[in-house]
Amino acid sequence: MLPKREATPMAERSPATRRTLWLVLSLVFAFLYIPIAVLVALSFNEGGLPTAWSGFSLKWYASLTGNSEILSAALNTLIVALVSTAIATLLGTLLAIGIEMRRQYGKGLEALIFAPMIIPDIVLAIALLSFFSMLNITMGLHTIILAHVVFNLAFVCSVVRARLKSFDWSITEASADLGASALTTFRRVTLPVILPAVVAGALLAFTLSVDEFIIAFFAAGAGRASTTLPMQIYAMIRFGITPEINALASIVMAVSITALTLSQRLNRGVIGQ
Amino acid sequence: MAPALAWLTALMVVPCALVLALAFFRRGTYGGIEYTFTLENFGLVFDPLYAGIFLNSARIAGTATLIAVVIGYAAAYAIAAAPRRLQPVLLFFAVLPFWSNYLIRTYAWIVLLNREGLVTQLLRWFGYTGEPPSMLYTEGAVIAGLVYNYLPFVILACYAPLSRLNPELAEASRDLGASALTTFRRVILPLTVPGIAAGAVFVFVLSIGNFVTPALLGGGRFQMIGNLVYDQFLTANDWPFGAALAMALIVIMLLVLMAQAIAADRASGHAAEARSNADG
Description:
The structure holds two protein chains of two kinds.
Chain A: H1 15-43, H2 59-65, H3 68-102, H4 107-118, H5 121-134, H6 141-164, H7 170-177, H8 182-211, H9 214-219, H10 229-239, H11 243-266
Helix pairs in contact in A: 1-11, 2-11, 3-6, 3-8, 3-10, 4-6, 6-8, 7-8, 8-11
Chain B: H1 2-22, E1 26-27, E2 33-34, H2 40-45, H3 48-81, H4 87-95, H5 102-113, H6 118-125, H7 139-163, H8 167-175, H9 180-208, H10 212-217, H11 225-234, H12 239-279
Antiparallel strand pairs in B: 1-2
């Protein structure tokens, strides 16, 4: 093993190298943030067109509140995200505890949990469509929820497992020895330790569900009743660029970025590692 | 444990097995499914028309992967070289866009690239007076969209090994007379291959099965496998063939994951070699 040491800090490099590295960083951040910034800026543009800035205005946000299609899609998305997150958080946390407590790391089990995170969305989408239609299940919000739990549960499980890796299981034994029931041990010993990870996993699941488009699109069935926000946005984009999309997009982005920032703060370093 | 595993089995394993089975049936005359065994759906996958779409998808995904890895590695290198206390902040902001809505990030490129979009406005501002350039609905737009959407993940994957790099190795290599380029090629690069491989696999797998980006930024003119699967299920109504295409996608994904495992395995051998190179 190599001794752990920090990489050469920038201060020890030549000024020319230092300038190049900062330039690379500035360019990459410009590439990542300019498209989003333009979108958000345009949503506040009175004229709504990218051609000219005609003054700051909230009128595109106001016009969203009068659009019943968008409001019903937003409500559907909220229902799907909340219910699927609740189920996935419960099941994913129990799964993580089950695996880490018994230290069962079978290859098949790992593959089963890893699969929903890597399987192409379109494949899972058509698989569920085939499955639901073969069983003659009427599709709607409930089938979207069933589908979203599949990948949400995998993400919650991986976030909670990361936290449990450093958990000392002997304290649960100590708790049992002192006469606590399994439930009390869970509630008073295990849960407080993993709670930040559980909440972080739930927030992650919530944003994944709010943003998910393809699987929802295939699992929604015919008709407009179960249109979710991403489906609504997709339909609007196909129709053309409108200032309303810019405003709606800015709101959705703000929601997911807030949820993710909270999740990251609660669970420093676990997400995305 | 049991409820979660049951959920995954009922709503992922069983449906996927169903798709696999579906691929062996025949398409009915009126678009339904005829339950007679056939291999012709898989034969059709290799038909020049569809094989062409596979190759096209692989080329677009490959180009996007290459660009994302080069930019992502450079960015990760710069972050790992930044002052220690700034690194978590830089990394957080590099990954943040990745967690916002995929559709919206793609839509942002339509806003930038359309004929009256920001890029055209900028060109005009610099004195360009000709026809607005057509940038949207090109292969370049699809590649730009894919790179944009998946770059954060490459940065994250490459940062991990780069931040753990022992600077003494690079110093030793230079002390022994190796140029900066040789040091990078023979010492730094081999030690960070696992990160590059993980990032590359992610971008490639997600790009080749992508549906949204080709549909929105390619304007339907650049069909990729994802769009083809979509069409079989929702417009052409040939589910068995769509199922065969989806299975081909899974096979490609598994092959790429195996290649990554092999690359990571080799890298651990090369890493040992790189260390002995640096140690003299």
